[in-house]
């Protein structure tokens, strides 16, 4: 019988395979970053920003609620089974995006995508945390999110290129078919379940930042603890929500905003790609940095760097393409600082016996940010113009960083 050991070095083969799987998971989101808002305005002639951004709202809400139950499903049915289920749900998505005859079918595709992402991405997060144990959580989350969001950015760039040469549909979405097939086959045949690694950590650990628990609490208890009762987990959850509010806003706003400023489709593809690429690659460095410097400094300053990105985009002192590129670099850098530190901080603060559920609650609030950001952008775009969505997101991000600065205590030190 194979001996169960914790650590990145000890489990590098399975860890590497999970990184590859998460690249496929991230690529599925990247399919939509550049092209789908333009499909709504140019192919289906939708005039309302709220309606155009409705696909992001549908995706965000469904993914958030799926995140919430993913940990419970993982504990009941194993991580691997939930990962495979996520891929099965996602199989129709690229076909629907490529050939949908109406906008309602695009919305249905995003409901399926939200469920698929909530299951599959959640499991890659949980499985990597299970494998590495406490010492390398920041590094593990940095590598996981780097793979996922790097694939988001590269796919956004590729779909923009394909759309500029072949049209908005169907060619840009064919690559999604490849992602789903590779991801499903890897998940079925080469990925191993990791729940026994989490059980081993439960036996080893004495306490966490939230204290020692001798029983596994129910989901409602974990929801309250993660959402508002524990000041660290509250600070983390609200920061995650606002971080993804920025992403949800940019997802819908940037293609329409920069196209209206005269930026071409390939230029929009670069703007949309550089944000998640910097976000993804940056986490290779910021993940280990969170292990070295602690979680809180990266979260606070990461939020402030994102604010600077909003300012660069809104000042219009450069030409639109340059402003979009530089602003997106700053947004990506700030998000790279925040993302692995937030996930590692939740893992610090939650006992292994309910960590999967707590991560699910955190990711529920984080991914509700997609929907809230898209709704905010749609309303402000309809009434005041799309640039106001950028201003509002910047102000909210500043306030969120201040909340973390004031209320959160460092979690890493308490795990040593």
Automatic annotation (TrEMBL):
Keywords: Cell membrane, Membrane, Transmembrane, Transmembrane helix, Transport. The chain crosses the membrane at residues 12-31, 51-70, 82-99, 105-125, 146-167, 173-191, 298-318, 324-346, 390-408. It is found in: Cell membrane. One of its GO terms (cellular component) is plasma membrane. SUPFAM superfamilies: MFS general substrate transporter. GO terms for molecular function: transmembrane transporter activity. It is a multi-pass membrane protein. InterPro entries: MFS (IPR011701), MFS_dom (IPR020846), MFS_trans_sf (IPR036259), MFS_Transporters (IPR050171), Sugar_transporter_CS (IPR005829). Residues 14-412 form the Major facilitator superfamily (MFS) profile domain. The keyword Membrane applies. PANTHER family: INTEGRAL MEMBRANE TRANSPORT PROTEIN, RESISTANCE PROTEIN MDTM, PUTATIVE-RELATED-RELATED. This is MFS family permease. It comes from Flavobacterium nitrogenifigens. The lineage of its organism: Bacteria, Pseudomonadati, Bacteroidota, Flavobacteriia, Flavobacteriales.
